[in-house]
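We were asked to recover a plausible sequence for a given structure. The inputs and outputs are reproduced exactly as logged, with field labels preserved.

PROBLEM: sequence recovery
POSITIONS: 222
GIVEN STRUCTURE:
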């Protein structure tokens, strides 16, 4: 009888120890899984030297530009004055997007970039909508049927480009913009237009998920 009791006790201890180890592993995997989810949903560093991000909300469309450009691989072919605007067409001009203070400014145009197709939803007749507010020097991109033009403030020779523009009362639909990421390159640099950023969980939500995983892990150990 003593041998039987001793054997049963040993089996019981083994089962409890095995259960604790399994629970510990599950807790670690749960926390690691949530952490990996957070990393996967976080915005990844872009390879673009200049990024234009367009967002829609509260009845407006807002554009933000940040980064810098190396134009050594391109040649300036024109200089003119213009205002920040969004334009689309079904002719030789496909799309054009320029950000900056809502005033007439000098812009230098550099042809020769290549990249993804334009961001039109549909090839509609020519439409140009000027920005109603903004800040910074005028800069942006124009995509035609045969070329891609990079626009920078007159006199630009490098350094940060931080411009913003607002199209009050507009939507992506009214500006004929299809959400997505559009990348344009040339020897030495890149410009990316992001229309509609990816929504990621708020930090508080991630903290809650991590805390829940940790609590489950601790309770299982107890």
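RECOVERED SEQUENCE:
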């Amino acid at each position: 009888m003593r041998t039987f009791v001793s054997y049963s006790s040993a089996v019981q201890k083994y089962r409890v120890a095995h259960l604790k180890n399994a629970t510990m592993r599950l807790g670690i995997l749960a926390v690691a899984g949530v952490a990996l989810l957070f990393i996967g949903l976080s915005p990844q560093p872009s390879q673009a030297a200049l990024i234009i991000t367009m967002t829609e909300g509260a009845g407006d469309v807002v554009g933000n530009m940040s980064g810098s450009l190396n134009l050594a691989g391109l040649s300036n072919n024109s200089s003119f004055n213009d205002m920040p605007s969004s334009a689309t067409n079904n002719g030789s001009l496909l799309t054009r997007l320029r950000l900056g203070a809502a005033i007439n400014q000098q812009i230098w145009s550099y042809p020769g970039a290549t990249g993804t197709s334009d961001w039109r939803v549909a090839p509609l007749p020519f439409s140009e909508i000027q920005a109603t507010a903004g800040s910074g020097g005028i800069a942006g991109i124009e995509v035609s049927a045969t070329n891609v033009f990079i626009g920078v403030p007159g006199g630009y020779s490098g350094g940060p480009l931080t411009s913003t523009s607002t199209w009050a009362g507009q939507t992506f639909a009214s500006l004929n913009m299809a959400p997505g990421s559009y990348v344009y390159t040339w020897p030495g640099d890149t410009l990316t237009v992001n229309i509609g950023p990816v929504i990621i969980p708020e930090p508080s939500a991630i903290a809650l998920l991590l805390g829940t995983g940790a609590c489950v892990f601790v309770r299982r150990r107890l």
